[in-house]
Design a protein that fits this description.
single chain; mainly beta; Porin; 16-stranded antiparallel barrel; Porin_dom_sf
Length: 365
């Protein structure tokens, strides 16, 4: 009897261990097929800012070399080379703990999309980083710095940021497009392509949209890009991704931008070059702005020296020019943390010089 009882007691344990093993294997399989990642960066700098035609301010601010943000992304293996993917990414101002790049900024302004990744390319929908922004930051030495990159100044910081720069609107549509559908092709020996379309999402706003196409070549020492962006309004110029951004050139109803970029890495010296042509359709008469950027980086003492010069001239009645140059040094303390120092000089015709200088630290997680 005792022997039977002991045998009878063991059987439930055997069943439990088997069930536990099956559950563990199932959980491990599910974990292998899906993933979620939390990531981001904190960038703070201390220094001085003086915009063209304005007075100087001493600041402790965020986003000196790149804008602070946090995000999470994930994927689920659907089989056959297909994956479901998503990303949610939000900017924030570390200097005061507030969300967004500015007051009233969209919460997930950096990216907020879901889609399908396959052997035939990636298709996503939501708020997506624009093709123009990607090409702009990859082909200038200061990358995505809204504080020290001359090319960022000339591409995105026009009259809406500097009212004295009356004839250069800057690129309309922000660095991310809401209400968008985007397709990116597979990589063919370093060459890939991307197309985007952004809907107006407003009743009666027939024709209001944004579209873009991009080619990227990233292979070895040589990299190149070509990108086109078009933004069309119904009647009144007002960025429908950011309705609060109404400080635009009077009568502007559409804008098209073409940009070319090239880099070559000699190891001891990396060269950068960009050319951009912006055409503005305005009720009082169309005009364009031509922009060029040249720069380099040089590795020194485990860090790198960065230098860049950008020049813009418009064909409008004011015939304004803008000349901006910057120099800086970035030094990595570890794989995730770096410190930097930089100086930028910004000159708009008819206005006093602007200049920005400071030191900062950036930590990635």
């Amino acid at each position: 009897m005792k022997s039977r009882q002991r045998t009878g007691c063991r059987r439930p344990k055997t069943v439990s261990l088997t069930a536990l093993a099956i559950a563990t294997l199932s959980a491990a399989s599910a974990h292998a097929q899906s993933s979620i990642q939390l990531y981001g960066q904190v960038d703070e700098w201390i220094g001085s800012q003086k915009f063209p035609g304005n007075q100087r301010a001493w600041v402790v601010s965020g986003g000196g070399m790149s804008t602070s943000y946090w995000g999470m992304k994930g994927s689920e293996d659907l089989g056959g080379g297909y994956k479901a993917i998503f990303a949610l990414e939000a900017f924030y101002r570390a200097q005061n703990g507030q969300i967004g790049r500015f007051q009233g900024d969209t919460f997930f302004a950096r990216n907020a999309y879901t889609g399908i990744q396959s052997p035939y390319g990636t298709l996503i929908a939501g708020r997506v980083t624009s093709n123009l922004f990607v090409s702009t930051i990859l082909f200038n030495p200061f990358v995505d710095s809204y504080v020290f990159s001359p090319m960022i100044y000339h591409t995105y910081l026009g009259t809406s940021t500097f009212p004295a720069y009356r004839t250069d609107q800057g690129a309309i549509g922000d660095s991310g497009w809401s209400n968008s559908v985007a397709y990116t092709s597979p990589n063919f020996s370093g060459l890939s392509g991307s197309v985007m379309y952004s809907f107006g999402n407003e009743a009666g706003a027939a024709g209001q949209h944004k579209d873009s196409a991009q080619l990227l070549y990233l292979n070895g020492a040589l990299s190149a890009t070509a990108v086109y962006q078009y933004v069309n309004y119904r009647n009144v110029a007002n960025d429908f991704s950011n309705p609060g951004s109404a400080n635009v050139v009077a009568g502007l109803h559409s804008q098209s931008i073409g940009q070319l970029g090239l880099t070559y890495d000699f190891k001891v010296l990396k060269l950068y070059g960009q050319y951009m042509y912006t055409h503005n359709s305005v009720a009082s008469g169309n005009y364009h702005v031509s922009t060029g950027q040249a720069g380099f980086t040089v590795p020194i003492a485990d860090g790198k020296v960065m230098a860049s010069y950008a020049y813009s001239r418009d064909s409008g009645g004011f015939d304004q020019t803008r000349k901006t140059w910057a120099i800086g040094y970035d030094y990595p303390l570890s794989k995730r943390t770096d410190v930097y120092a930089a100086y930028l000089d910004d000159k708009i015709s008819g206005e006093s010089h602007g200049e920005t200088f400071g030191i900062g630290i950036r930590a990635k997680f």
